[in-house]
Queue: 4 jobs
Job 1
Amino acid sequence: MDRRAVRLLLVTVVVVLVLAPFASSFPDGLERVAEDLGFLSANHMSEINVAIMPDYEVPGLGGYTGTVLTGLFGVAVTFLLTVGLGKLFIQKK
């Protein structure tokens, strides 16, 4: 992995740490539509509505810490998927 990728990863982590307190508490677009149409709390959704970190929070942690950990988890997953797919699809010469 080159230095540019590491620098970009560090910048992303700093952005998560700084901007986490400003995360919106309003529902995202899909959740808002589900609320408006009245099927967000439907019983049949409870069987398939499983999340590792529901509502972008770490269970048991709230506030800044939970939001930061969720953001860092998202950054890590995205980074690992990107690197993995990059290695899979880009052939070395």
Job 2
Amino acid sequence: MSAWSRALDELVRERGSALFGYAYVLTGDVADADDLVQDALVRTFRSRHRLLGLDATHAYVKRAITTAFVDRGRRAAARPRRADADLADAAVAAVSPAPDHAPAVAAHADLHAAILALPPRERACIVLRYLEDLPVAGVAAELGLAVGTVKRYLSDAVATLRATCADIDFDATHESSPLTITGGTR
């Protein structure tokens, strides 16, 4: 077995679920998350270049997931939509699942839906900053953006999320997590 094959095997075995979880938080869909992880792994390991350890490989694949997610959002926004696709979206939106009786679960579902409604770059910034708990500079480095650009994306996304989910606190000084839902546990 070659070195790149061993690195791929170790990465999938040790960090595959974390990579899938990250992709799922970005996409909100199991199939899309699987596709993102698969695309990132193929892009990373097709060149068979030398990767330096599990942590570096994990970070590289995670960055590839983020890049692929943002690229997909950009391509989807550039494509013209058909009128019947809008009708299908309206039909899907009209069907709602039975409400859960636990307020915390409902609050998390609202938050998840609100995050999925954000544009791809804003969503990536929110996920990295508030769910991955990276500092703004870390988010900027992860996405290859300027710190000011990340701050703008975060500001716009937080304003949108506050308007949609009033019970979410985006206080960066919170002890356990900068993103909390009042009235429920995280």
Job 3
Amino acid sequence: MTPRYYMACLDLRGRDCLVVGGGRVATEKVHGLLDCEAKVTVVAPQVDDELRRLPVRIERRPFSRSDVVGRFLVVAATNNRSVNAEVSSVAREKETLCNVADDPELCSFILPAIVRHDPIVVGVSTGGASPALAQRIRSEVAELIGPEHAELARRLEGLRPWAKRELPTYEARRDYFQQLVTEALA
């Protein structure tokens, strides 16, 4: 049975993250972490040229259990399932979040297909059942989000401090912002 996942957005700014693997998939995962300003270390015996050019710490060697210590999250993206399983096992022991590329059974979290129009981020997940379907839905959702939505989000963000000061309850703030959104997108 597929687990039900708790969707969350993580603040990775300055967080120590580990990527095990040095190929194309690892590079893709590193890009996602860097987009969120994570501090990334890559451990792999071989590292693709593109990955070498990224602002990450690279350790060209096999994975070691001690690599997980002190990490906020870990991504295993090797082409060797036994290495990925070991990374997952160590992360579980250390109670560290772990994603294993294309192997949801080994993950403590999975990554949705995302649409990013800062500050808006929409994630689409099929619970690991089909990344291809999630990517297709993501593409369709992307067509619904335009620059006007991102601009509105930035304007509303600017109003939050005023609303917290002036509107006494959560419900009053919620109603105020819902009205502004309705008017702006009518």
Job 4
Amino acid sequence: MARELQVTFDCLDPGRLAAFWAEALGYVVQPPPPPFGSWDEALDAWGVPADQRNSRSAIVDPDGDGPRVFFQRVPETKAVKNRVHLDVRVAPGLAGDDRMAALEAERRRLEGLGATFAYRVEPDGRLETGFITMLDPEGHEFCLD
């Protein structure tokens, strides 16, 4: 039996990172459970103190197909390169100049949202199709593929 998958980010500012990744992936911030109309309403009802309200956040695929992405506040900053990273597939089916142009367009969009460019790998006409490595607003590596 296949299992449901959730991707979890340790971070300093769950709300900010959730907003970034929602835009990057075309996701939405997970809505509060019924009968609450907002997260503030739910957190008020549950008695969550103000200093704990940004301790976690989540985003979901509005079509229900992709995995839930969860963000949890941790006290330490990111210190080393990720051993696992996300590849954001923005150019499936494209090759060569068309592929790299699509990746560059997405690079510029994500930089406007707070991402940072790391490096670009060119297609080699053999195995390498080309990609761009970036950092999210807290320094987590990800690739535009």
